[in-house]
Each structure stands twice: as C-alpha cells, then as structure tokens.
Design a protein that fits this description.
CATH topology of chain A: ABC transporter involved in vitamin B12 uptake, BtuC
Strand order of the largest sheet of chain B: 6-9-10-3-11-12
Radius of gyration of chain A: 20 Å
CATH architecture of the largest domain in chain B: 3-Layer(aba) Sandwich
Number of strands of chain A: 4
Structural class of chain A: mainly alpha
Radius of gyration of chain B: 24 Å
Number of domains of chain B: 3
Strand content of chain A: under 5%
CATH superfamily of the largest domain in chain B: P-loop containing nucleotide triphosphate hydrolases
Distance between the termini of chain A: 21 Å
CATH architecture of chain A: Orthogonal Bundle
CATH topology of the largest domain in chain B: Rossmann fold
Distance between the termini of chain B: 41 Å
Oligomer: heterodimer
CATH class of the largest domain in chain B: Alpha Beta
Number of helices of chain A: 15
Number of helices of chain B: 18
Strand content of chain B: 15-25%
Strand order of the largest sheet of chain A: 1-4
C-alpha cells in the first residue's frame, strides 16, 4: 500500500493506511513524549527507572479509557462533561454492590457497566430528543451522577478489599493488566473509527449532520450510541480504579472530565467535530502523565505543576493549529 | 491609457496553480467583466485584489503606486470595496447595523439608533428595498434581499473601485435591473467596477470591457461591443460547444411516483402530479413558490400535513417519514445547497461518494474494505468525468460544477430510481451545465425518473418531457413538450399571485425561498 493514495491519506491525518502512515502521523507526539522523558531523565536522578514508569503505567489506564470515549463524543461535535461523575457513580455502584448487597464480584462489574451505559443513554437520548446541546445535558448529568454516587454509598468510602483486586494486580510480561486493557480499548477505538461503517458515520456527523440526514441515514441512534460508549468506558475506568484502590470513594473522578478533554485536545481532536484519531488522545494522556510525574520528581510544587500543565495544553493546541495549516497548504 | 489598477504577472498556487502570469488592468470609469468557467481563477484574482489572499508571485499597482494589501480592511482603505459570492452579513444584527457595520453612529460607544435607522431607511429606499424595516434582523430576510442588502452596503461607500462576484446569483429580473442602474450611475461618476458573472447576456449589457479567463490564464480582453456571445463561450471553454441538448422523449407509460394532494401550509397545498419512469419532469416557478419545500416533503426532509405518495403502480401509499425512508424507497434528493446540505467538504471524494450506501463496501459486521471503496469511488469519478487528482482529494477543493457531479456520484452509488434535482445548475459555468444536462439525459435513458427544479426556463424547456409550474404553493399546471412557450410558463408561474384577493406592496420577487407572498400587478408586468 505504498502508493500516492497513501500519501494523501496521511496528509489528511485520517489515520488510515499502512504502518508508515501511522508512524508519520504520530511522529510529532512520539517526539514530544520522548523529549519529555529525556528532559526529566537528565534533570532528575530517579525519573528514568522501571519503577517510575510502572507507576505511571498504573496511574493512567482510567484516564486513557475515559479519553477514548471522550474522543468519540468530540468527533460528533458533542461534549461529555459527566464522565468524571459517572466514573464516581459507577465506582459507588460497584462498591455498594459488593459490600452492601453481597453481589458476586462478576455480577457487580456487569451492574457497574449497565449503570455507566444508563447514564450515557440519558445523555444521548435527552440531547437528541429535545435538541439540547450535549454540553447542557452532560453538565446536568455531572451533578446527577455525583449525587447518585453519594446516595448509593451514603457518602462513605466503600472498602471492598481484594474482591476484584486480581484485576489491578495482575500483569502480563511485567505490564499491568489495566494498562493492557487500556491499550486494547485504544486500538479497538482507532479501528472502529478508521475501518468501520459506524466510525465513518461518526466523522460524517461531526462534519455535517444535516448532510448525513439528507443522505438517508438517521443520525440520532448513532449519536445516542456514542454517549452510551462514553458512559460504558467511564464504567470500565471505574472498575479499574476501584480495583486498584480496593475501595470506592463517592468523590472519585472529580474533575476528571476536564483532564480527559485536555488530553483529547492535546491529541489534536477538534472541538468542532469531524476529526480526531483515538491514538493521539492516548498520547495526550501520556504527555500529561509524564509531565506530572516528571515535575513531581523535580520537586515542583503543586501550584506550579498546574500552571505548567495549563500552559502545555494551550501550547499543544496552538502547535496543532500550525501543523494543520501547514499540512493543508503542502 | 488611464489605468487605475493594474495587475501584472500574478500567480497563485495552492495544491495546483490556479493563476499563472495574469495581467489585468482596470481603467477609470469602466465596468470590466471577468468571465470564465468555474475554477478558471476569477474569484481567486479578485480575492487577491481585495486583500483576502496573497499572490504567490507578481505585483499590483494602484494609481501608479505599488499596491500590496495585507487584508480586506487594507484594500478598503485604499478604496476597493468587494461584494463576495458568499454573503457577509451578520444574521443576528439588524439590517441597519449591518449596513453601517464599520461606521455605526455612536456617542461614547452608545449606538444612536435613531440616526442609524434613518440613514439606513434612506439607503434601503435608494435600492428599492422599501419593504424592509431597518430594525429587522437580517436572518429574517430571504436570500435575495440579503444579497441586495450586501450590494447596497458596498454601493453606499464612495469607493473608486467596486468588485462584485456573482452579485445576481440570487436576484430576480427587476432587482437585476435596479442593480444595473446603480452600477451605471457609479460608472458615470467615475468609479470603476469589476464584475464577475456567469450570465453572459448580463455581461454584454453592463460591461464596457470583458476579460476572459481559462484555467488560470488570461485568454484575452475585449471591448464588449466587439465580441459576440458565442465567441465568449468558445473562448471560455476553449472548444466549440454544442449548446443544444437534444432531448428525445423516451418516458415510458409506467408510473414511478404519484403525489396526491400534498399539503404543508403555508408552503404548498394540494399538489398532485405523476412522474413516469425514464421521464424528466421539470418544476418551474418563482422563488418562494414552494418547489423546494414540496421536494423536501416528498423526500421526508420535512413532514407534510396531508396527502399521499404512491410508488410504481402500487395502490397502497408509502409512508415517508424521514429521508431514510425515502432512500429505502429509492428516492434521492439532490439539494439546492450543495455545500451545506449535500457534501462533507473536509472529507475526501471517496468518503463523500460511499456515504449513501456504505454497506456495499463493508462486510456484514460493518468492516469497511478500503480497497473496494476506493475502487468504487474511482469508478464513479470516471463515469461522471469528475475532474480531480484522486478519490482522496477533499471535496472542498473542487469547483462548483465538479461538486455537483460529486453529489450526483453519491446518489448514483446508492442507485436510487427516482432522482429529484433541486437547481442542479445553479452557480456553475456553461461548460459544466452542459455536462450536467447530458448526465440527466443519460440517467433518464437508463430508466431513472427525474424531477428537475430550476429557475432557468431555457434549460427546463430544452431538457424536460413535461414541465410542472408552481405558483404561490399551488400547482398551476403541467405542460407537455410542444404545448409550452416561455410566455405560457411565465403566465402560469404568476397565476396564483394574481387571483389572490390579498394585495400588499411586497412582491414575491424579492422574497427568499422560505417565504411566500402575494404580488401586485405592477411587478407581474415585469415578466
């Protein structure tokens, strides 16, 4: 597949085609991650160590999974502000199911996923049925789900012990299972987006929803499904986090939605819809995580960490604008 | 030679070269027309002159001094006003605010509405927009009036150079007359006008000189009096053209679609007609007569209140609640507004073409076969002679005519039996128009049933087997080939406006397509 067609695909950044195209498309992000790692490795003693990388890899699976869902939502020109609260709510359901209702852990996990999807159905259905911008509906869900999390747990952290601890502790070839799950979800998300009819419809809806409708395709069920996916992925993230902390905190995931949006935006997904490879969102999460860990090992205070992270987000988006303008002209 | 503006050796390159070594000069006090097919580079040239884009090479002189505008504002300060093809109004502001947007009268930042609205009323009056209230929001106006408003705003400035890119695209005849009167006035006061249009008759009437562009190069500049219409067209397309499309009537007797009493007030009421297989049925009518709305109703894009649609010989009406149902029943609508409603401009031609029937290039579980998809897209691009670099080129980069072909390709891929074309040739050049006519002819030969909505009677009369005329939301009549003439069709188009007992000073001519209104006798005489 090394023909001119591939080259033009690459220009569009549509992440299709062979390995070369993929590498070229993500080269910039790979370089950014490598540069950050090099920088922190040179400036601190302890950064470049397997333990440190393992810590980072353990911290980010939930963020990666939620960011994948968020990418889908942004592609259809929507937004999901509720993912953090839904994550908290799902964790609460999981904790309560195991501790209070004595449900089998597997069934509890299933229940958690259903809870996440239900939140997504609400988001998608309401915003479609009454043409309410998803910003508003999911802002409402942000409060609803948080309230739900506190209700289910009676505002107390639920300690589940090692009931599903096997999930977070397991590892394959030295890589933790949650990280592998996250990678699989990213890969699946990328394939769905670039190789399936559903993914094509998402991009088309984000580009021109009315044209989709007038092409004889009903965009509404597709849009609802996107929010369901986002809710489900928040639930998966909740399972992983609950397993890792061995407890469900009703305040879990507070502010997570903004982190997810930041990561996705760093990855170059447009808030206007129609564009956004999932793999890039993964790199967005990675960049933020490496930056945070690096600054921490440098001993940078929390207030400066936030300040620097903020600047990086803005700088990344500005850079991406330049990149786009450049590729559009070349 | 009294050259006011001269352009020399201008080149502009995007992905391909769109202008190469263009020399052009504008004299003081002349109307200079730029003509050429879509994609010939007219719009690019005027965008460079008006500071919207920078040339890749070459230079410009204004009043004998080097001229290199960095922005549109820059050019305006040098006295160059531009009316672009795309409307440049702010829908949520009032008519008056838009008219004086760059110089709203104010005291310490507070708008002096009384003064503003008074000045606007004077200006509106001058341009025959008497029915428009300066306090109205622009978004409430039809597209024709918006266009006039934009022209009025540009004309009101005392700028020595005025550039107009397709100003008459959305205008009806009386408005065009008014526009020409103002252009002539401006020229007689010593201003110069660069005028771009596809309508050669108009250009012959208004222009002093004509410059013809083809494929980014100047073919020649002529005095308007010295060159004939055929000559202009030949120069534009670079080949002698068989303008006439011979239509051999081949409609079968078998019915493809039957509409019965379709009603959606206030847009259309009691519309009934039959469409046969292999037929091209034209829909004529004034702007706002309900043609577009009727078609959207049949396609399920808007729901109609009452009436039935029958397909083939079925006695059972079909229920079409959404475009999805329509497409499943083999009905396609090619909308008037290609860019907003038909295409995915930032996406590739491949993605645009296959969207209507993507299942055909995907496995049962929805896995797209990219090679197959690419091949299919390539195939349709070849069949429709769609000019592009590859199926991976983005739709936004195509010229208007090729974009229209892309919309056709998209529906050919779905293989619908009934194709409804709403203004398929609007805004595309003569060469591309003829190709579209040939395509329509081919489609009907292959047994497709075609409805063609058009505001150009000439093309309807050349192409259609029958022409239905709508007037004020009603079907005023259906005419067979041979039984029509331009006069008969126009009379039908105006008929419902004359019988209505409602009389008000608004004419339907300057109404947008989303409005219907009665007409008074004076306006109707203009036809």
């Amino acid at each position: 597949m090394n023909n001119p067609e591939d080259r033009s695909k690459r220009k569009q950044g549509s992440a299709q085609g062979g390995l070369n195209a993929v590498l070229a498309d993500y080269a910039g992000m790979l370089v950014a991650v490598a540069a950050l790692i090099t920088l922190f490795s040179l400036t601190t003693e302890h950064f470049f160590s397997p333990e440190n990388f393992r810590t980072i890899a353990n911290q980010i699976p939930a963020a990666i999974i939620v960011a994948t869902g968020m990418t889908f939502v942004l592609i259809i020109a929507g937004i999901d502000l509720s993912v953090g609260s839904v994550l908290g709510f799902c964790g609460a359901v999981l904790g309560a199911a195991i501790v209070n209702w004595n449900v089998h852990p597997l069934l509890a996990v299933l229940l958690t996923c259903v809870a996440g999807m239900a939140c997504g159905v609400f988001n998608g259905w309401v915003s479609n049925k009454w043409s309410v911008p998803s910003f508003i509906v999911t802002l409402g869900m942000l409060e609803i789900a948080r309230g739900g999390a506190h209700l289910v747990t009676r505002s107390q952290t639920q300690y589940i012990g090692s009931a599903i601890g096997g999930l977070a502790d397991a590892s394959v070839a030295g890589i933790s299972l949650p990280f592998i799950i996250a990678l699989v979800i990213v890969a699946a998300g990328q394939l769905v987006l670039s190789r399936t009819v559903f993914g094509r419809y998402l991009i088309a809806i984000g580009t021109n929803e009315e044209a989709v409708r007038l092409s004889g395709i009903d965009p509404r069920p597709i849009k609802v499904l996107v929010f369901v996916i986002s809710g489900l992925l928040a639930a998966v993230a909740a399972v992983i986090d609950t397993s890792r902390y061995q407890s469900a905190n009703p305040n879990a995931g507070d502010g997570f939605e903004l982190q997810a949006i930041a990561a996705v935006v760093i990855g170059g997904t447009s808030l206007m819809g129609g564009r956004g490879p999932v793999v890039r969102s993964f790199f967005g999460v990675l960049i933020i995580a490496v930056l945070n860990a690096g600054l921490a090992s440098l001993g940078v205070k929390d207030e400066y960490k936030r300040l620097i992270t903020g600047l990086v987000i803005v700088a990344a988006v500005v850079l991406d604008q330049y990149r786009q303008r450049f590729t559009a002209k070349s | 030679m009294d050259s006011l503006l001269s352009v020399s050796n201008i080149c502009k390159t995007y992905a391909v070269q769109v202008l190469s070594n263009v020399d052009f000069s504008l004299r003081r006090g002349e109307v200079h027309a730029l003509v050429g097919e879509n994609g010939a580079g007219k719009s690019t040239l005027v965008k460079i002159i008006s500071g919207l884009i920078r040339q890749s090479a070459g230079s410009m002189e204004l009043n004998g001094r080097p001229f290199a505008p960095g922005s549109r504002m820059d050019a305006e300060q040098c006295g160059i006003r531009t009316v672009l093809q795309e409307l440049n109004l702010i829908g949520n502001l009032t008519v008056a605010e838009n008219l004086f947007f760059t110089g709203i009268p104010n005291r310490f930042g507070l708008i002096r509405y009384h003064e503003l609205n008074k000045a606007a009323a004077v200006l509106l009056d001058r341009f025959g927009l008497t029915g428009v209230n300066p306090r109205m929001k622009v978004s409430a106006l039809g597209i024709g009036r918006q266009q006039l408003l934009e022209i009025a705003a540009a004309m009101s400035c005392e700028s020595p150079i005025l550039i107009m890119d397709e100003p008459t695209a959305a205008l009806m005849d009386p408005e065009v007359e008014l526009l020409f009167k103002h252009i002539k006035e401006k020229r007689d006061n010593g201003s110069s006008v660069i005028y771009i249009s596809h309508r050669i008759e108009e250009i012959k009437r208004i222009a002093d000189r004509i410059t013809i562009l083809r494929d980014g190069c100047i073919v020649g500049t002529y005095n308007a009096a010295d060159i004939g219409n055929d000559e202009i067209i030949n120069q534009m397309v670079g080949r002698s053209m068989d303008q006439v499309v011979e239509r051999r009537s081949q409609a079968s007797a078998r019915i493809a679609l039957k509409a019965k009493g379709l009603t959606r007030r206030p847009f259309f009421h009691d519309v009934s007609f039959e469409l046969r297989k292999g037929e091209i049925l034209g829909f004529a009518g004034l702007m706002g007569s309900g043609r577009t709305e009727t078609m959207r109703g049949i396609f399920g894009a808007d729901r109609f209140e009452s009436g039935e649609i029958y397909l083939d010989d079925s006695q059972q009406p079909v229920s079409i609640k959404s475009p999805r149902h329509a497409v499943r029943n083999g009905i396609a609508l090619l909308t008037e507004d290609r860019k907003e409603q038909g295409l995915f401009l930032p996406l590739s031609l491949r993605e645009n073409i296959t969207i209507t029937n993507i299942g055909a290039v995907a496995s049962r579980i929805g896995w797209i076969n990219h090679e197959h998809e690419h091949a299919e897209a390539d195939d349709w691009i070849g069949k429709l002679d769609l000019r592009c670099r590859s199926p991976e080129q983005k739709a936004v980069e195509l010229s208007g005519g090729n974009q229209q072909k892309l919309v056709i390709a998209k529906w050919m891929f779905r293989d619908c039996r009934i194709l409804i074309f709403d203004e398929p040739t609007r805004g595309i050049d003569v060469g591309a128009k003829v190709e579209i006519y040939k395509l329509l002819n081919n489609l009907s030969e292959r047994g497709k049933a075609i409805i063609m909505v058009s505001s150009e009677l000439n093309e309807l009369m050349a192409l259609c087997d029958r022409i239905a005329v709508m007037s004020a939301g009603k079907l005023a009549g259906v005419f067979d080939r041979g039984s029509w003439s331009q006069e008969i069709l126009m009379e039908a188009a105006f008929s419902e406006y004359l019988t209505g007992e409602r009389r008000n000073p608004q004419s339907p001519l300057d109404e947008g397509k989303d409005e219907t209104g009665p007409v008074n006798h004076e306006t109707s005489n203009l036809s």
